[in-house]
Amino acid sequence: MLIIALSALTPLLLMILAGYYSHRRNILPENSATVLNDFVYYFTLPALLFSALATTPFEEIAQVRFIGGYLVALVGIYFLSFLASKLMLNGSFTENSMRACSGSFPNSGYLGLPIMMYLFDGSRQSLLASTLGIILPIVIVVLIVSSFALHHADKSQSSVRVVLQIIASMIKTPLVGASFIGAAYSFMHFQLPEFLATGLHNFGMSSVPCALFAVGILLAGNKMEMKMLNIGLVNLLKLIVHPLLAAVCLIAFGVKGQILLMGILLSGMPVAAISCVLAESNEALEEETSATFLVSMIRYIPMLYLTLLVTDLFGLPLISG
């Protein structure tokens, strides 16, 4: 298990190192991180989300108990992280939202699938759980977009007009719009041509190296203040509180057995690179978010072992296959 975790994490660290090196050597233009993050935000990540949803049968997506418990934990940890940032770090609305994103959005897209497939011997249930783990966190983007729209809305307008503005903001957001279209495509049982599904998936997977390369540039280009309280708080929420909350919520929704363990492990994934993309696009906490992302990856391996140990002690052992 150590080998597969290291195998999944090492390429991420190398991509960050490549971005760091390129900036230090002035290989790329000064604004490369912004360009890369915009490329991910507007093009590659929406393509990945659309292809993931459009090619997954709606009947498989509609795992009501798992989705319910997982989403309640996601939303719960988002608001808990927002509140912790506000009360403990005295952050602004935008800063609280960015820390809440880091504290709730798991890196299931890149780490989730290979680690789940390894731990559970490539079972169909692990593939389904991993797919849902990639798709469901889009609700965090919806929360950020809608809360920003509500926060900046003209308070003199009617409630209906404000709601319509929030809906319009969400639809205009590439990640949210692509997810809704993909879900609708799956619901109507349309078949995406194989060449198009493969092309969109491959194009979308370039999100990972681009986002991580941009993280390396941000780390190299800024004299980063390692605010350990800020970084430590978000990592505590992401790596410890989130999987604990997920366990409680999934059990409350009647989820049992190995898929319960999968939901806990997926919730305990480190901070996702999309948090860095969103921080850059909103021009808030770019350096802190990049540092939080990096620290969470380093801390993830011991936390994975600890999670498996604790779940085994509570009668939820890892059963491969």
Number of domains: 1
> How much of the sequence is in beta strands?
under 5%
SSE topology string: HHHHHHHHHHHHHHHH
Number of helices: 16
Instruction: Give the overall shape, derived from the CA principal axes.
Output: globular
pLDDT < 50 stretches: none
Q: Report the helical percentage.
A: over 70%
Number of strands: 0
The CATH topology is what?
Na+/H+ antiporter like fold
Q: Just name the CATH architecture.
A: Up-down Bundle
First CA to last CA: what distance?
15 Å
* Biggest beta-sheet profile: none
Rounded mean pLDDT score: 83
CATH structural class: Mainly Alpha
Mind telling me the C-alpha Rg? 19 Å
Structural class by SSE content: mainly alpha
Characteristics of this structure?
mainly alpha; Na+/H+ antiporter like fold
3D structure, described in words:
This protein is 79% helix and 0% strand. The chain is mostly helical. The chain has a single domain, classed as Na+/H+ antiporter like fold (Up-down Bundle), CATH 1.20.1530. Helix 13 packs antiparallel against helix 14. The longest helix has 28 residues.
